[in-house]
Protein: Phosphatidate cytidylyltransferase
Amino acid sequence: MHKENNIGDPSSNSTTRLRHRKRSIEVPPEVPKSDGSQFLVNDPKKYKSMLIRTYSTIWMIGGFIFIIYMGHLYIWAMVVVLQIFMARELFNLLRRANEDRQLPGFRLLNWHFFFTAMLFTYGRFLSQHLVNTITTDKLLYRLVSWIVKYQMFICYFLYIAGFVWFILTLKKKMYKYQFSQYAWTHMILLMVFVQSSFTVANIFDGIFWFLLPASLIVINDIAAYLFGFFFGRTPLIKLSPKKTWEGFIGASVTTILSAFLLANIFGRFLWLTCPRKDLSTGWLSCDPGPMFKPEIYSLPRWVPQWFPWKETSIMPVQWHALALGLFASIIAPFGGFFASGFKRAFKLKDFGDSIPGHGGITDRMDCQMVIAVFAYIYYQSFIMSQNFSVEMILNQILRNLSLEEQQLLYGQLAKILEERHFLQY
Amino acid sequence: MHKENNIGDPSSNSTTRLRHRKRSIEVPPEVPKSDGSQFLVNDPKKYKSMLIRTYSTIWMIGGFIFIIYMGHLYIWAMVVVLQIFMARELFNLLRRANEDRQLPGFRLLNWHFFFTAMLFTYGRFLSQHLVNTITTDKLLYRLVSWIVKYQMFICYFLYIAGFVWFILTLKKKMYKYQFSQYAWTHMILLMVFVQSSFTVANIFDGIFWFLLPASLIVINDIAAYLFGFFFGRTPLIKLSPKKTWEGFIGASVTTILSAFLLANIFGRFLWLTCPRKDLSTGWLSCDPGPMFKPEIYSLPRWVPQWFPWKETSIMPVQWHALALGLFASIIAPFGGFFASGFKRAFKLKDFGDSIPGHGGITDRMDCQMVIAVFAYIYYQSFIMSQNFSVEMILNQILRNLSLEEQQLLYGQLAKILEERHFLQY
Structure:
């Protein structure tokens, strides 16, 4: 929130300003120029910039495919690494070197909160999956139960420790800077962890639910870039002067079509469709359920006689994929607009400089964040089958209750079902 | 976060500054005066100020007791009203009249997010309790199931609508103000709703778990005030120059003793100890469990012979109350320090002026927020009995599964227990 004293403020000292000069020199003009020179179509340097961008894009996509091949745990690890990089970029964004020198250990507090948030988000998730990995080991079972039971208390304790630490290190004349940093830290953690906890949940519900949305965003970005590159002329929104209607519409059509086709391709691999309930990396096999069973549709009558196929097979999940495609192309770009607006408000060019031609990690993640949450909620609301919820509760019983309690529950359930005359045996 | 351009900044216009003058004139000096004149002991106006404060305190406590008597739903309603007032105070805090005039409808966005957060926090909770209120009505059961199922999606949709609305109404030269307001809104909602959702959960776990912590904070505040009033001489912390070590220590001892005694008194009423699982306001009866069963302790030998009692009865919950008392007197005050620091950083006297002598609602709620979360997590981690978790899962089964699914689950559980040779019949 507190870039303002940083740049363009005569009272801020030169050290601080130097730190940010690199990022803040190339701010694009606020108003699109009337000759259209800001669009890629007319940019003379566009081929060199495209080359750099293509090169790093290929590397990123290649690495991504390799990680998908390696499996759930590796994808999770990737998400965590991205989280750390994003948090670092964002923590550094509103840093002021001069103030920080007078507040030793203040930076550490950010990371204290970061790791508390991590323990909170992943602790329970991790231990629940751990139980499924090793149900036979009594000692480990107890340890995991202990962690599950007290995890919330431990996290709360850590948070309060950070809170007290913050208050005890408040320094006169620094109050405003410190409070702003505190709030900014919370906003970052909220953003980073809400999004990534949904992403990790998607991964373990089946890589499909992570891979499809993520791919659609990448496809939409690339298509928007290419359509804009070759046809872009009409400006779309003032916040991002380089974005054009041609890019937006071309990308939407491409993304929705891709969603429909990709869902069919991804839906064929058990590796992508099966949920993973333990923490092993072994082979997965499951009944992927009716969502991924192809249904035969005969083609409409107006298809000419000479056309070789008379029918086509479509998985029900493909219709849902259309919803994801629609979201990825219409709503998710607002994540990008938000990031652009933020950068414009605080006079930044990029959030960082980790990826050549793309800016920081955060610049690539803006739309991914929006769609990960959507995919999770869509999956929970419209896809997760009823049977799965029986399974979920059963898992809960086996994980959280002792054997005596399981018997107790069984007895009580029997009694209730008997009373209602629903017990058939 | 963005008070800075507001006060003491020569560039801000006079309209804005007028709006805040009332609250910002009486800022206490940053450094305690060496003659000790800042302490209440030496304040000549202290009796008048104490009278006003006592008067409104009595009204507040009276109203509070009446609401406790009315029951869970009314307490909940009180929490919601307090939430709305707190949010209003905090939303207004960083408002700038001049900017707002140029952004019609921008204030509405805050309340859009507020009600989305409310639907998110209470929607599920409400509908789950509603199911217990009226299990016989098939139609209502379906409606509630529908809400439970799609509530998350509806809330997400509303949030995204607000997000898009925000981006589309971004106005040139207002970016920084708008983004700061957006972040500030999120911080407020995070603070207000995290705290109040825990509070409401406590209320329905048994009013005891809401009433005891809340009372301890009030007792600690009053005791600190009185001890400081009569004995306070040694300054405690620079953030709150009126707070003294005498007040802090006297209040701690008082609070811990009160916790032990109050737990015994509150623990005798089923109205306070029974959890409420429906939304009616009728009489409660339950087995309050071993926590509230008095145990007999014989007094130690050094108690003189003439002392009439040879033994005393203590409820196990009283030992837990000591933990609450300790927290209320040692950690919770940091909530107050945080608020003081915040007010000092942004040069405010109070958060509002709703309660004569006390300032705004937020000024009275700062420590309540910290302890409500603690009480919830403490209850979940150390109090909630094992039996209760069997009951919880059973509730979940009866609420969320259809009859067929309940039978399916029963069958599967039978199979698993048989396999493990734990089924005794």
Summary: Confidence is low (pLDDT under 50) at residues 1-34 of chain B. The longest strand of chain B covers residues 240-244. The CA atoms of residues 294 and 315 of chain B lie 4 Å apart.
